Amino acid sequence: MRPHTRSLPLRAGTRGSPLALVQTRFFLKLLASFCPVLRGMDVFEEHAIRTTGDRVQDRRLAEIGGKGLFAKEIHEALLDGRVDFAVHSLKDLETELPAGIVLACTLKREDSRDALILGPDCHAPEPGAPYDCLPMGATIGTSSVRRQAQLLHARPDLTIVSIRGNVQTRLEKLAAGDCAASLLALAGLKRLDMADKASVVLDAEAMVPAAGQGIVGITVRESDTALREMLAGIEDPEAKAVATAERAMLAELDGSCRTPIGGHARLLPNGELHLTGLVARADGSFLLKRAAHGLAADAARIGAELGASLRADCPRDVFA
Fold first, then answer.
1. 196 is catalytic
2. Of 48, 59, 143, 145, whose CB is crowded by the most CB atoms within 10 A?
3. Largest CA-CA distance found in the chain, in angstroms, rounded
4. C-alpha to C-alpha distance for 12 and 24, rounded to whole angstroms
5. Could you tell me which residues are beta bridge partners of residue 95?
C-alpha cells in the first residue's frame, strides 16, 4: 500500500466495550509497526460504534437476530465510507459477510479456551474434574448456548440463567450473587490483564470453544485493494489456517444462534491441522463431537467436510 495515495487519518471501526478498544489499539499498533510511514499521532482514528447486540442486554442474541448484531452497524459504517476498516472478535463475525465486505486478515490467536469464574459458594477446583467445583443444582450464568449445552451434558443438575454484557459487567453480576459461577473466554480476560479472574481453565476438547474464539479479524471494503494488500502483510498464517477451517465448518453447518456449535482447530507439531467440531441440543440431551485432520493448506476442505459429517448425523430438530 502507498499511504500517500489515500487520505489520512485511517479510521478504524470497533465496538465500544473495553475489550474491543484494547483489541483495536493492539491492531493499530501492530499495523504502524509493520508500516513505519503510518507511525504518528494523527494517522489513525478510533470510531466506537454501538451495535444492536450491545444495546439490547435483556434478551438472548438468538431472540433478537443472532451474533451478527455485534457487527451490523459496523458493516454499515464500512460500506458508507465512515470507516476504512473494522476490528472484530472473529467469533462474533458471521460466516457470510455482506456484499462488498471481506475479511482482510486475522491476527495471532490468543488462548482460545473458556474459563470458569467461580463465586464464593463453589468448591475448590480439582485437577482433572473441572465441573466438580460446582455445587449440585448450582445456577450458572451464561448467554452462550454452546457453553450451556456442554455444561448440561456433563452436569444435567445445573441451572442455566442468561447473563449478558461486557466482561466487567458479567463479573459484577457474579459478584452480586446473580449466579454461582460463570464462563468467559480466557482470551478476553488475558487481553484485559484479568487472567487472574479465571478460576478453572477448561481444556478445549472438554469445552469446545466457539469458532474463531481468541482471534481478532479485520474487515475492509472489497474494493479497497490497497488496504487489503497492506493488511495481508500482518496476517498470522497459523490464525488464517485455523480460522479458515473453523469458519468453513460453521458455514457448512449453517446453524442459527440457537444451535450450540463449537469448533476448534490447531496446528500439530508435524504441521498438519487438527479440527474438533461439536453440535448439541441446548439442553445437553444430545451432543455429537468429531475430529478431522489434514494438511493446513486444505483447511477449508477439512472444515467443510467435518461440518457436513456432523450435520448428516444430527437429529433434524437440532437445526430447527
1. no
2. 145
3. 63
4. 8
5. none
User: How far apart are alpha carbons 143 and 177 in whole angstroms?
Assistant: 16
Q: What are phi and psi of 286, to 5 degrees?
A: -135, 135
Instruction: Compute CA distances 205 → 57, 81, 97, 265, 297, whole Å.
Output: 30, 41, 29, 10, 23
Q: Kindly list the distances between the CA atom of residue 85 and the CA atoms of 213, 220, 318, in Å, as whole numbers in the listed order.
A: 20, 5, 36
Indicate the burial class of 264 (C-beta count within 10 angstroms; 0-12, 13-18, 19 or more). buried
Q: Is 192 helix (H, G, I), strand (E, B) or coil?
A: coil
Q: Which residues pair with 184 in a beta bridge?
A: 115
DSSP secondary structure string for all residues of 93-108: S-SSPPTTEEEEEEPP
Distance CA 304, CA 302 (A): 6
| Cβ within 8 Å of residue 66, ≥6 positions away | 94, 256, 257
This prediction has a pTM of 0.91
What nine digits make up the cell of 171?
A: 463479573
Compute the radius of gyration of the chain from its Cα atoms.
20
Q: For residue 98, say if its preceding peptide bond is cis, omega within 30 degrees of 0.
A: no
DSSP one-letter code for 129: B
Q: What is the pLDDT of residue 287?
A: 98
Question: How many CB atoms are located within 10 Å of the residue 254 CB?
Answer: 13
Mean pLDDT of each 10-residue bin along the chain, 320 residues long: 60 93 94 79 84 59 58 92 95 93 97 96 88 96 94 97 87 91 96 95 96 97 94 96 97 82 96 97 97 97 98 90
Task: Single out the catalytic residue among 92, 111, 114, 224.
Answer: 92
